[in-house]
Amino acid sequence: MRWRSAFISVVLLTLVTVEKPQWVGAQSFHCKHSKSGALRPHSVSITEFGAVGDGVTLNTKAFQNAIFYLHSFADKGGAQLFVPAGKWLTGSFSLISHLTLSLDNDAIIIGSTDLDDWPIIDPLPSYGRGRELPGNRHQSLIHGYNLTDVVITGGNGTIDGQGSIWWDLFKNNTLNYTRPHLVELMYSIGVVISNLTFTNSPFWAIHPVYCSQVLIQNVTILAPLDSPNTDGIDPDSSTNVCIKDCYISTGDDLIVIKSGWDEYGISFARPSSNISIKGILGQTKFGAGIAIGSEMSGGVSEVHAEGIHIFNSLYGIRIKTSPGRGGYVRNIYISNVIMTDVKYAIRITGQFGEHPDDNYDPNALPYINRITFKDIYGEHIGFAGLLEGIKGDNFSDICLSGVLLNATGSEDPQWNCSYVEGYSYQVYPVSCQLLQQVPNDSSVCYAPADNCMKLASL
Ligand SMILES: *[C@@H]1O[C@H](CO)[C@@H](O)[C@H](O)[C@H]1NC(C)=O
Ligand SMILES: *[C@@H]1O[C@H](CO)[C@@H](O)[C@H](O)[C@H]1NC(C)=O
Ligand SMILES: *[C@@H]1O[C@H](CO)[C@@H](O)[C@H](O)[C@H]1NC(C)=O
Ligand SMILES: *[C@@H]1O[C@H](CO)[C@@H](O)[C@H](O)[C@H]1NC(C)=O
Ligand SMILES: *[C@@H]1O[C@H](CO)[C@@H](O)[C@H](O)[C@H]1NC(C)=O
Ligand SMILES: *[C@@H]1O[C@H](CO)[C@@H](O)[C@H](O)[C@H]1NC(C)=O
Ligand SMILES: *[C@@H]1O[C@H](CO)[C@@H](O)[C@H](O)[C@H]1NC(C)=O
Ligand SMILES: *[C@@H]1O[C@H](CO)[C@@H](O)[C@H](O)[C@H]1NC(C)=O
Ligand SMILES: *[C@@H]1O[C@H](CO)[C@@H](O)[C@H](O)[C@H]1NC(C)=O
Ligand SMILES: *[C@@H]1O[C@H](CO)[C@@H](O)[C@H](O)[C@H]1NC(C)=O
Ligand SMILES: *[C@@H]1O[C@H](CO)[C@@H](O)[C@H](O)[C@H]1NC(C)=O
Q1: Counting ligands in written order, which one lies closest to the CA of residue 7?
Q2: How far away, in angstroms, is 103 Cα from ligand 9 center?
């Protein structure tokens, strides 16, 4: 069959892309290579502050003291805190501006399993409460607030959250506060996270929130496939974000873009936009490769994802929302995706539910518009697409272009659509009736122009 050879050539093309991280290709793509390797004029080792890398000694104070000391270099080009080979047990600590936290290849930062080492902090204003439980939440292992120019990097050193204690507490419903992330940076500008491995996060692994100018490159994120809500990377109410060349294998969404929750997200009104994702390989048992929502009340727009390979997963691409969310998801372009052994290739959910409290406005309907799925190829797909909009709030200009899915399941129909409107062109199996308009000119399917982010200077 003709599409089979097209499938194979695109598979090869994308695998080359994914396996050669330094590939700098399509002019339309925004991620530029970082020069974050630029050395800070001053560097100290964590051992100068009494840290012991035996995996047993608690080094929270050493991290805090080292970072406090490095304050004085912030206006002199900043400083580097070096973590040499060893196992460095620590509780939560906070970064400062103009700081590079740099891990040696054989350095492992290990999160304490004593919950008291993870302080309690306020909920995010755009969520109004902890994501899992009302009230406050635990602070992430590596935290940042109000920072500029911060780099977390290494020669593939590891940051291990030792999440299993948290997963157990979550499963047996004995947590008092929402679980912490491995890395959370709030209100920060100019963030680079690169060349590291993140394992066993208690909750989401990397959470930039209210940030801009964020580059996440060449990181590996691992957690057991059955660990609860261990999302990989969650850009949240953040702009100008580039995520590239990552391998992610976790229990929930690999990369998921968010922007606040129901009435809190609506009133905080901080969107996520200009998000670029490229060269991602990964698997997730309960989540999606690339997702948006379900918290999207501040709006999500200008998302450009390409060169994504998702295998052995529940969902390929997913958009989640609900009445009560308000906000919007628009101008989303996802292209050049390979899926293998994925149960649902594309899912749009308009009734996700999950509200922070009873004060949400059920009439706050999300506006979902101009979502393009282009050049999506799948093998061993269970179900091509389940696309549910909201009654009285059709999701519009949904465009499927070059979507070829070899669905092995016996489900019929392969596309199940409601309250959506849009287009399809070269889609197999034949798409649902609601999306069968043929795009008559290129403008109906959203395809972003070159809006290169200026991330090269980070
Ligand atoms: C955050 O930064 C702003 C402006 O630089 C400053 O006014 C504010 O006090 C800072 N807040 C905290 C908690 O550091
Ligand atoms: C990715 O990280 C590894 C390990 O740190 C390093 O050897 C490699 O050069 C990095 N690749 C890129 C493109 O930065
Ligand atoms: C980094 O280390 C992880 C875990 O040891 C490994 O799976 C991955 O392949 C390494 N990445 C690079 C780029 O060397
Ligand atoms: C819940 O899990 C924690 C961590 O494994 C364990 O210490 C605790 O005994 C469990 N509680 C219940 C009620 O099962
Ligand atoms: C939750 O709070 C109760 C009461 O303060 C305390 O006994 C329990 O240890 C706490 N549980 C956790 C997981 O922190
Ligand atoms: C990652 O490591 C490689 C190899 O050491 C280096 O060339 C590159 O600049 C680093 N990337 C980032 C984004 O730090
Ligand atoms: C679809 O998959 C089946 C089972 O793997 C295979 O036999 C068939 O050739 C594939 N069809 C196409 C068009 O690739
Ligand atoms: C389509 O999906 C809806 C859920 O959104 C389900 O209730 C319905 O049974 C499905 N229809 C078919 C024909 O599979
Ligand atoms: C919404 O979509 C449905 C099909 O699901 C269609 O019948 C209806 O006319 C659309 N409503 C509006 C207001 O366009
Ligand atoms: C394409 O179709 C839309 C309606 O689906 C119409 O409004 C528009 O004028 C058409 N454009 C061209 C170039 O025919
Ligand atoms: C998004 O990128 C475009 C093009 O580079 C730029 O004009 C726009 O200001 C950016 N938006 C935000 C919120 O930074």
Answers
A1: 7
A2: 55
In a domain, 165, yes or no: yes
pLDDT digits (tens, 9 = 90+) for 398-411: 999 999 999 876 66
Nearest CA to ligand 1 atom 10: 146
185 CA distance to ligand 6 centroid (A)? 21
- Residue 396's closest CA among 416, 415, 420, 374? 420
For ligand 3, pick from 109, 220, 245, 280 the residue to mutate: most ligand atoms within 8 Å of CB: 220
* Options 231, 252, 262, 397, the catalytic residue: 252
**What is the distance in A from the centroid of ligand 3 to the CA of 198?**
10
Residue 113 pLDDT grade (very low, low, confident, very high; cuts 50, 70, 90): very high
Give the pTM. 0.91
Catalytic residue at 116?
no
CATH number for position 131: 2.160.20.10
| Angle (CA) 119 199 151, round 5° | 70
DSSP summary character for residue 25: -
Name the domain count of the chain: 1
Ligand 10, atom 13, residue with closest C-alpha: 441
Q: CA 341, 415, 310 angle in degrees (round to 5)?
A: 25
Query: In which domain, by residue range, is 246 found?
Result: 31-252
DSSP for residue 140: P
Domain annotation covers residue 4: no
